[in-house]
Sequence to fold (213 residues):
Amino acid sequence: MTLDQRYRLIFKPLVWVLALLPLALLFGRAFGVAGESLGADPAKEILLTCGKTALNLLLVTLAVTPLRQLLRQPQLLRLRRLLGLFAFFYAALHLTAYVTLELQFDFGQLGEDIAKRPYITIGFLALLMLLALAATSTQKAMRRLGRRWQKLHWLIYPATALGVWHYYWQVKADVREPLVYTAILAALLGWRAWKRWPALTSKSGSATAPERT
Fold:
């Protein structure tokens, strides 16, 4: 089986199934056909599930590069765009659930919340960054933006950091789970810094080396 066949027949369908599973379970719980119910506050449970799934997918997206390097499986890189799009999908569902279930379509209140409630402000900023990434995820956008595309897609790092921060600020008492997300993000960023460090020090050394005569 070729690399392209493994991607199309195995890896891509697997991502679709696993990424849509939380949504399917959420619907199943809402209609009482899968697991426990949504509890006393269904709106809160829906918000939490969508938000955490978006964060999970963002962290998995960032984990693709270390996994590719450790496992030496270059085809994994082809999954990043799909994973990122699913992360945006769940982040958009998170906002939609907030507007519909919590605010009852009161967009004026939404504007006030974004302006006055810091954890909503940073969550909305993260969503805007993910929107920019999703809107430029096509091959056409890559060709049109050229080298700027790579710089733009570095937004996944601040978007994920803001998402984790949003979750941390939202939690009222028990912050252990947000801290776990913070630790995972720090590990993923630390891996990248460690892998890039030799190249950075090499460039720094060559830039400061005395000119030979």
